[in-house]
Amino acid sequence: MEDVCIRYIDLPCCVNGVTVQDESGFYNVYINARLSIESQNEAIKHELTHIKRDDFYSLESIQKVESF
Ligand SMILES: [Zn+2]
């Protein structure tokens, strides 16, 4: 398992979650605390898929990355 830290914070209502990678390669996943538990779990799965796929290293556009 990768080094991932999941935190719950208030994000704008249209944002489910974001992943930020710091300089040491550690992933910080921020999940919108305003979502229902089910939506939060979906958002975590979504962000973990990005991490597994190394989307943050790819040169593909965000739109393509978000299309799964
Ligand atoms: Zn995404």
Brief sketch in words of this structure:
The chain has 68 residues and is of the alpha+beta class. It is built from two helices and three strands, in the order E-E-E-H-H.
Q: How is this structure best described in words?
A:
It contains two helices and three strands. It has 68 residues and is α+β, with helices and mostly antiparallel strands. The protein has one domain. It has a three-stranded mixed beta sheet, covered by helices on one side. The longest helix is centred in the middle third of the chain and has 16 residues. The two termini are 21 Å apart.
Contiguous runs where pLDDT drops below 50 for at least 5 residues:
none
Taking the sheet with the most strands, its summary is: 3 strands, mixed
User: Ligands bound here?
Assistant: zinc ion
Radius of gyration from the CA trace? Answer: 12 Å
Order of helical and strand elements: EEEHH
Report how far the terminal alpha carbons are from each other: 21 Å
User: What quaternary form is this?
Assistant: single chain
Helix % is 25-40%
Cα shape: globular
Strand order of the largest sheet: 1-3-2
SS-based class: alpha+beta
Strand residue content? 25-35%
How are the SSEs placed, and which strands pair?
Layout: E1 4-9, E2 17-21, E3 27-32, H1 37-52, H2 62-65
Parallel strand pairs: 1-3
Antiparallel strand pairs: 2-3
Residues 46, 50, 66 line the site of zinc ion.
